[in-house]
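Sync notes, pocket subgroup
Present: LS, DG
LS reminded everyone that the earlier model was apo-only. Rerun requested with 2'-monophosphoadenosine-5'-diphosphate included. Inputs:
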Amino acid sequence: MNSINGKTKTLGLIGNPVEHTMSPFIQNLFAEHMGINMVYVPFHVEKGRLEGAIIGAKALSLIGNNITVPYKVDVLSFIDVLDQRAKIIGAANTLKYSDDQVFGYNTDAAGFLTSCQNEGVFFEDKVVCILGAGGAAKAISVVCAEQKAKKLIIVNRTLDKAEALKNTIQQYFNIEIEVQDYAEVLKLKEANICIQTTSIGMYPNIKETPIGESTFFRNLEWAIDAIYNPSETRFLSLARENGVKTLNGLGMLYYQAVKAFEIWHDVIIPQPIIEKCFKLFNDYIYSR
Ligand code: ATR
């Protein structure tokens, strides 16, 4: 940090709360490895002050911001140019300030896709079951549809939200989508991949799982959890015990940050740096 000088560029996360964010660790790690003179910090923004924060960020010549809870949807009002995924998802998590304009992106979808591709999870012609219908589920559904999944089964406690997500996706993609509740989905035999996007099972509630019946897992090839803490949720351990391949949410978090960094600085991070930083990030998260 003592390398900060008159030429240092500033970026940061806008949200509330922001105290537990991993983004400063990841972004400053990339900066160090890429030799970019920047600093990335958390910005706690009070309710009702998002517009002021963005006007201020532009006035202070910030390069860009990440946007997190609760502002990912509200921020759309302040974006001049929105990327296609952010438009479909209806939420942006990355802003770039350039030529006095605000460019908005959703890098969660890219993060999920890269994490899956790295592990050999492919969606083409697969039946994919998605648990949850919130922000993470939207980004993940877009990826599954883009990658030409055969069918999506969206499962949610609040069925209206699952129906709304189905309608949004079908507005943009020609894909079969079914909505089910948690009781119905237990009978499901045709799914190849199941993706858990709710907060159920997240630390400290590590014994919880949205699906606890072993029989559900037996026909799956992959079980994926958007949660990364704990590294293996109850959902993933049940899957593993039933012979299913598993992937947690750490890669999704990491690769959305890779994508944001690349957008802000107009660079491609070389693969050896991506791999080295992922290892450092993994150690940082799981050795604390
Ligand atoms: P995120 O951006 O992380 O996806 P979100 O948009 O708040 O967060 O969505 C949370 C998702 O987890 C929703 O699908 C929510 O279900 P509802 O739409 O019915 O609220 C789901 N969820 C959270 N807690 C849950 C619980 N205890 N049981 C079932 N679903 C739950």
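DG: The chain is about 40% helix and 20% strand.
LS: The first helix runs from residue 23 to 34.
Action: DG to write up.
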